[in-house]
Description:
The complex is a heterodimer of chains A (110) and B (113). Chain A is built from no helices and eleven strands. With 110 residues, chain A is mostly beta strands. By secondary structure, chain B is an all-beta fold. In chain B, β9 (87-95) and β10 (98-104) form a beta hairpin. The N and C termini of chain B lie far apart (36 Å). The A-B interface holds A 2, 4, 9, 32, 34, 36, 41-46, 49, 89, 93, 96-98, 100-103 and B 4, 6, 9, 33, 40-45, 48, 56, 58-59, 88, 90-92, 99-107, 109.
Amino acid sequence: DQQVKQNSPSLSVQEGRISILNCDYTNSMFDYFLWYKKYPAEGPTFLISISSIKDKNEDGRFTVFLNKSAKHLSLHIVPSQPGDSAVYFCAANSGYALNFGKGTSLLVTP
Amino acid sequence: EADIYQTPRYLVIGTGKKITLECSQTMGHDKMYWYQQDPGMELHLIHYSYGVNSTEKGDLSSESTVSRIRTEHFPLTLESARPSHTSQYLCASSDRDRQETQYFGPGTRLLVL
């Protein structure tokens, strides 16, 4: 039973525009959420995280929003750049490990 | 940025062979993990360790085994490789004080013929 869901397998955005990647979770015990970026044949790279006591965390072009009542988080990338093209994984901490979504493949076109 | 290394990066091997995937980290992290990922799918935890001489099985059943004799080293072994073991294997580590953030190695792509 998948507890972290990324329902959009792919997303295409023009360079300079905003990319919004979404993630839903089912376990209300999750208290820490992370976004990772992954290129093919490489390991995931940590991007940004948010604790459940916050509703927003910002780091440069990346902002993560958390809506606990809806069990939903999103990653905003502004402005999007071609180098952002990768697979983005949402993950939630269950206490001893991370639960990952299936990822969203982002393509940023010039 | 974390320093975590995996070797080999790519491995093609025949059925029945014994293989060991190496993972090392230089940050002194207590916790280490092994994940398995197939294309288009989520990462599945197969093993983790809280520290030296500690190993636990993850959520996904795996025929592999692990050991943790040194803090920096967490190898994964398959005694007899099968085509169903074909996958990408990712090693990660985290700091005890910041357990939530895991840092990943580059992964090993395994193909069993």
